[in-house]
Amino acid sequence: MQKLPFYKYQGAGNDFIMVDQRSQRYLQRSGRKSIARLCHRRFGIGADGLILLQHNPDYDFEMVYFNADGGEGSMCGNGGRCIVAFARQLGLIEEHCRFVAVDGPHEARIRPDGWVELKMGDVNNIEKGAGFYFMNTGSPHYVIFVDALEQTDVLQRGREVRYSARFKKEGTNVNFVEPAIDGIAVATYERGVEDETLSCGTGVTAAAIAHYLRQPGQGSQAIPIQAKGGRLEVRFTPHADGFTDVWLCGPAQLVFEGVVEV
Fold first, then answer.
1. pLDDT per residue over 198-235, tens digit each?
2. Rounded distance between C-alpha atoms, residue 87 and residue 100, angstroms
3. For residue 18, what are the domain limits?
4. Does residue 48 contact residue 255 with C-beta atoms inside 8 Å?
């Protein structure tokens, strides 16, 4: 057993365990059971995911993300925003940074009001089906528009899509979107967590792009998002073949810190 210093962050209700691994390797990529136990809300710290901040000679830091089930995950947008706030707390960065994650390099900046703005990857190859959109915004996302989000059974309907014949093996995240006067409201079922989360960064990014495709506008867009865990904003520039300058913006806050034995 060894003592593991950790920090708990949340971004619009999406919560993460942060571990600084620049000088000491506390956790290994193969340590799936240990990571899942740390994320467990009864037997561990409790979180939607765990993130390692590691040294990278070409960037300010490297982000390694694990889902709550302990498996290494694809890109996590809210986790990316939270690790930027964590890096500033550690004194590693100031208002701007560049880091690398599983889907490649990212740029981020911290606004004076504390919101973190994270540049996501370009989004292309969007599938429009019967009543849904499917795209990859760093993670795969299936987007469905609904009339009454509060009455939608996100867990049940999300599981039906995630464990359907098409997605059963690799999985997908499932987003339910209701247009509002001021932007959109979004609820997300996340693979790896296998439950609804209070928000999902790559999910609201996909939802905002799908919303635009239903009601196209002119020039660069800024879509206000209401997730169950708080407000977010997605900005992007549309083109004939996809979307560039995609930014996920929102709060990222330290909840508490501590030490746990692993």
1. 999 999 999 999 999 999 999 999 999 999 999 999 99
2. 13
3. 3-120+252-261
4. no
Residues 131 and 240 in one domain: yes
The CA distances from residue 47 to 40, 135, 171, 174, 240, in Å, are: 7, 26, 20, 19, 39
Cα distance between residue 91 and residue 74, in whole Å? 26
Its pTM stands at 0.96
Enter the tokens of residue 189.
Answer: 């079922």
* Amino acid (1-letter code) at residue 231: R
**Which member of 39, 82, 97, 200 is catalytic?**
200
Same domain, 90 and 135: no
The verdict on whether 76 is a catalytic residue reads: yes
Helix (H, G, I), strand (E, B) or coil at 156: helix
Clarify whether residues 115 and 7 are in a common domain: yes
Q: What is the rounded CA–CA span in Å between residue 170 and residue 147?
A: 29
Are 98 and 170 in the same domain?
A: no
Residue 186 contacts residue 180 (beta carbons within 8 Å): no
Indicate whether 152 and 113 sit together in one domain.
no
Choosing from 76, 82, 97, 249, the catalytic residue is 76
